């Protein structure tokens, strides 16, 4: 059984930085893509918004609002994905979830980690 565990969330002032981690365990097939999403309670029925993604080959993409501030990376050996968040803004506040997508067939989510950016 695949499990994803996020960590690294917290409270930070605007302009500060945080580094999120998501460790995957269990039988994980390749190739796979790893994602970060953000959920803001009460917004559009608790919709999770795309933040960043990285493929097995290291190709990355980002939401427009985080480009040049966030960096996604992964450690293939440790089965861990990271999200380095710099120059944080209050609108970055939310619960951050990681998602593992195995060839679009198997989808796994973590439990989320809270990020709060104060102004």
General description of the model:
The structure is a single chain. By secondary structure, the protein is mainly beta. The chain contains no helices and eleven strands. The strands form two sheets. Strands 2, 4, 5, 6, 9, 10 and 11 form a seven-stranded mixed beta sheet that branches. 29% of the residues are buried. The mean pLDDT is 94.
What share of the residues lie within helices?
Answer: under 10%
Rg over alpha carbons: 14 Å
Q: In angstroms, what separates the terminal alpha carbons?
A: 40 Å
- What's the rounded overall pLDDT mean? 94
From the spread of the alpha carbons, the general shape counts as globular
Low-confidence stretches: none
Order of helices and strands: EEEEEEEEEEE
Q: Describe the biggest sheet?
A: 7 strands, mixed
Strand content: over 45%
Looking at this protein, list some descriptive labels.
119 residues; single chain; 4-stranded antiparallel beta sheet
Indicate the topology.
Blueprint: E1 3-7, E2 10-13, E3 18-25, E4 33-39, E5 48-54, E6 60-62, E7 70-75, E8 80-85, E9 94-102, E10 106-109, E11 113-118
Parallel strand pairs: 2-11
Antiparallel strand pairs: 1-3, 3-8, 4-5, 4-9, 5-6, 7-8, 9-10, 9-11
Summarize this, please?
By secondary structure, this protein is mostly beta strands. The chain contains no helices and 11 strands.
């Amino acid at each position: 059984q695949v499990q994803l565990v996020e960590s690294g969330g917290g409270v930070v002032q605007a302009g500060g930085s945080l580094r999120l981690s998501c460790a995957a365990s269990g039988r994980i097939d390749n190739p796979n893509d790893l994602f970060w999403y953000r959920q803001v309670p009460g917004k559009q029925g608790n919709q999770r918004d795309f933040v960043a993604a990285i493929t097995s080959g290291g190709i990355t993409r980002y939401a427009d609002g985080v480009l040049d501030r966030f960096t996604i990376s992964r450690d293939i050996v440790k089965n861990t994905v990271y999200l380095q968040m710099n120059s944080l803004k209050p609108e970055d506040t939310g619960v951050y979830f990681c998602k593992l997508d195995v060839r679009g067939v198997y989808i796994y989510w973590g439990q989320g980690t809270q990020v709060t950016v104060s102004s």
